[in-house]
Specification:
- Helices cover 72% and strands 2% of the residues.
- By secondary structure, it is an all-alpha fold.
- The radius of gyration is 43 Å and the shape is globular.
- Residues 30-35 and 66-78 have low confidence and may be disordered.
Amino acid sequence: MRNPILVLFLCCVCVPGYLLGQNPFDLTERLEVLTPTEGGTAVSNNPFDLLEPISAEAPRQASPPLEVQTKARPQSVSTQGQYDRFILVVSLASLLLFTLMITLFRNFFGRAYRAFLNDNVLSQLQRDQEGTGSLPYYLWYLLFFINAGILVFQLSHHFEVFLPNSLLLGLLASIGLIAAGFLLKHLVLLFLAFVFPIQKEVKLYSFTIIVVGIILGVVLLPLNLLFAYAVPEILPYIIYLIAGIVAGIYVFRSFRGIFIAGRFLSSYIFHFLLYICAIEIAPVVILLKIISF
C-alpha cells in the first residue's frame, strides 16, 4: 500500500467496532432525537429546526360562529322597534281622539278652561252641568285618563319598571291605574259628603278635580309626544319639565280645594289633614314609588 499510516488508522477504528458488534459507519446515534411533549407535539433537538414556539399562555377559546354571535342581537332591536311602532300608533290614536273631541265638544272645553281660571265661573258651571248633563265633561275627563296613562306607560318603559309582556296590556294597566286612583278619590269624597254636612263643598271640589283633569289631559298630549320623540340627550330635561308642569297644576288645584273648604278647616282640621295625607299625597307617593322601583 502506498500509505501505511492510513491503513493503520482504518484498522484501529474498524477492528474494535467489529469486535463489539457495532458498525462504525452507522449514523443512527447522530439522528435527531424527537421527544414528545405533553400536548403530543414532537420537539426537535436540532437547533436549526425552525419550529413554532410553544406558548405558556392558556389556549384561547375559539369564538363562536358568526351566526351565534348575531343571533341574540336582532331580538333587542326588534323589541325596541316594536315599542317604537306601538308608541307611534298610540300617539296617532290620541291625536285622532283629541281631534274628534275638539270637533264635537269644543264649547264644553272652553267652559272648563274658563272655570279653571275663575272660581265664580267654576261654581256656576258646576250648577249648570247638574241640570244640563255632564256627559261631555266626563268624556274630556276620560281623555285625561288616557293621556295620563300614556305618560305613565312611557315612564315605566324608560325606567324599566315591570309591566306585562304585551305592550297593549301594559298601556291598559297604566290607564287603569290612573283611572282607579281618581275614581277612588271621588268615592271617598262621596263618602265624606254622606258622613259630614259638607255636600255642597264636596260636589264643588269633586267637579274641580274633573275640570283640572280636563285641562291637564290636553296639556299632557303634546308632552307625551315630546317625551316619545325627544333625543336621549335632552330626555332627562323633558322629564323634569313634565314633572314641574304636573306639580304646578296639582298645587294650583290643592289651593283651590283649600279655598273651597276654608270655612270648615277650623272645625274639621284633623279630618282635613287625614284626607290630605290619605287621598292627595299617598297616591302620588305610591305612583312615584312604582315608577322608580
